[in-house]
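hi support,

uploading two proteins for the ticket. first:
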Amino acid sequence: GLSEHTMSRVPKITAISFNRMCHQNFGHACSYRIFSSARSPSRVSACNNEDEHYIEQWLEEIIKPNEFYERHAHHRRYFYNIDLQGRLFLEETRPKSIATSLKSEAFLNFFFRQIRRISDDEETELLKNDHDAAKDYPFVSRCGSEMNFIRPADEFAPIVFHGLSSSSSSSCDSAVGDSPTSLTFGGSLIQQFSSDALAISKTTNRLYHRLLHCEGQMTNDEQKASRQVYPSKLHQYSVTSGSPEYGLIRSALAVELSNNFEATEEDFDVEVYSGMEFIEGNGSIRNKIPWLPEVHEN
């Protein structure tokens, strides 16, 4: 068994599932409070009025002067935010709400398919010495000569899974079918759900899912990887680069998935695992949920 010293470092699970009352009262404002553990006591207190406006205030505060957006728009450069629900907004939009989010399914699918990390010096050079903007937009979605820079509310996760679908298809275009095997993001893009790809953040307690290709498998075969179908360019990078990327699971979906969570009864490495398991097949399959890799932590 675990030693007394080790046990003292094991997170104390005080609420296996998401704080449902918190979610019902304040929705996305509390979506970063998913699990209650001794690791992050400041993050698991009951929701309050200050929390209600947390994300809204952040989205308001990061808006730059109109001159910034107008000047870049002249060169077909635009700036977007993605909130913790996966909703897409032009950054200069005020206020940001369901009503002002971009909703065209075709546009959302195209935009999210093209998302990738900024890796080209030319792209970052476009924003250099301009309101410190180069560090604000770690992702981009390109459409021909049009550059769409992205600053997500979760700085490591521009892809937010907002629902479960019944798709068992290898297509990445839409959610269709009769087996609940897929996560949805963007407009109607899908990725296979795999419980062994879940992870929990130590610092925020948010729930994540690793980005996989459409059949949900990883491969080290470069030739095979080049033929895979990917929901987005970020998915392709996640599978082929050796540096997996993660998508955030929105709070309402975390509530749904939490019905399959149980506290781990066996010994586990507290530096690697969260102390939670995802239960499938009437208990015959139990996958320990690890911590999110530190490189993705805020």
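and the second one:
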Amino acid sequence: MGYANVINFAGIRIAGLSGIYKSHDFYKGHYEFPPFNHGTLHSIYHVRNLEIFRLSQVKKPIDIMLTHDWPTGIYHYGNVQQLIKIKPYFANEINSNTLGSPENERLLKLLKPKFWFSAHLHVKFSSIYKHESENNEQKETKFLSLDKCLPRRKFLQVIDIDGDENKKFLSLDPEWLCILKRSDHLLSVDSYNRAPIEQKENLTISEQEINDLNEDFQNCYEIPLNFKQTGPIHSEISSDKRESKDIYLNEQTTLLCEMLNIRDPIRVLLEKKGKTSIINESTTQLYNDLLDESD
């Protein structure tokens, strides 16, 4: 899912946000570059303002939201006393309503997904959040977090969600692609805090934009099964330490960015660091194949 994303599977619309919320990194760009130091080793997985902004622009309904962090306050809509009994050291943050991510809470109220699945706190917990009614319609979000995948821990639960049997494949989401395209100018790879994204940047994706995108993609958003290994496999016993100091471009990301005419943050970082040889040596065979098919 990357930093943030919206994809579709079997007609089910799935949004995702990677990382955890830390206020001191929230307004920074994606500046981290290997080899990582103690600070960047942690900050690289901290959520940034840009991803929250992009997700907040989604207007069409979301079925499933996937995040690492819990939304702040979600514990008040389930068995909070049982949660404190299992995790007593959560009590102070629960009482001060600071456990979880305030930005995820904002997204919860904006997107109103049918399901919200999280991790991070290593405990099974469920709740139902009832949204304010609109036009006499009462929406609710069913929240679920599971424990770590260890013996005798509650790490697995099966949920049935109705989908389209004829669309059992991953596909890109047109509205999300338009959001990426319209917000590309907000991308930052700076290590300092920037001003919050202003309300004037809020987007409304028009039907004409969707139609133009359909034409560019020939009404085909299915994600092909052409995944490739882009870097060496990490191994604790390997003498090959390239994975600790190198950065790799992903062909599928390169292809998507070229089709949308947007910037790849990894490529921007490479250019900023003067690592243009990596860009020059990288292949875009997927894009070349697409051009050949068009011919």
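thanks. also noticed: The two ends are 31 Å apart (CA to CA).
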